[in-house]
Amino acid sequence: MNSWQALDTELERWRSAGRCATFWCRDDDASRDSASLQQLLEIAESAALPIALAAIPATLDRSLVAAVAHSRFASIIQHGYAHRNHALPVERKMELGLHRDVEVTIAELERGAEILNASFSERFIPVLVPPWNRIADRIVAKLPDAGFYGLSTLGARKARWAQPRLLQCNTHVDLIAWKRDRSFIGPDTAIGRVVTHLRARREGSADADEPTGILTHHLDMQDAGLQFVVELVTRTRDSGAAWFDVDEAFAAPGVPLSISGRSA
After folding, report:
1. Domain boundaries, the chain
2. What pLDDT is stored for residue 180 in this prediction?
3. 3-252: which CATH number, 3.40.50.2000, 3.20.20.370, 3.40.50.300, 3.40.1190.20?
4. pTM for this one?
5. I need a labelling partner for 126 at 20 to 30 A (CA). Which of 16, 78, 100, 142 fits?
């Protein structure tokens, strides 16, 4: 059985159980328009694929605002403040750790949200994506009071609520091999990770309600990785799966959704 057949088989098991497999797509490190961003947005347009662009407030360029305005499928979430490492050289990179006063970090995040809200209006959704997918628990605890509705990192979430009033929805398949020349991880590896998370959801060892998250980085994406996204979206939709936008990914049963002044 090849990798695509393994995915088809897993999706068939979802259908046989009367369930709909769900996905979402997050793209990190957005700050300005570029040829690589346009390529991603063109894919989103042709595939009707909602894309959550995690934007860096401190380096925001007006060209990104224009690019998002012309896209029907792009939303903006917040990627830290400056994507600046504050950890010691011997530590793993981290912007949102305890290397500085927590209140200083929170103030930066609030300033970043103001920048994105002023620039993107209703396209901005107050979901925080920590740079390098790392954040200290003491900072997480303060996010709701700082105006954030959601948190997104990497890996299966432990619970839907990271904190009271703070929904968590993560990504699970990073398409970039960071330690191998930032190349595409390859279809077999990518599909294997997709199937692993889908199976864990179906069998109950992971939260069944957390959509399987695909993580892209447009600045580092190669044609092979982009074409994989197109084929993944096409094949999963043909098998009855759904691709969520940010509102849907961060929805919680029984909780009215209110993000950036919107409700559903």
Report:
1. 3-252
2. 84
3. 3.20.20.370
4. 0.94
5. 100
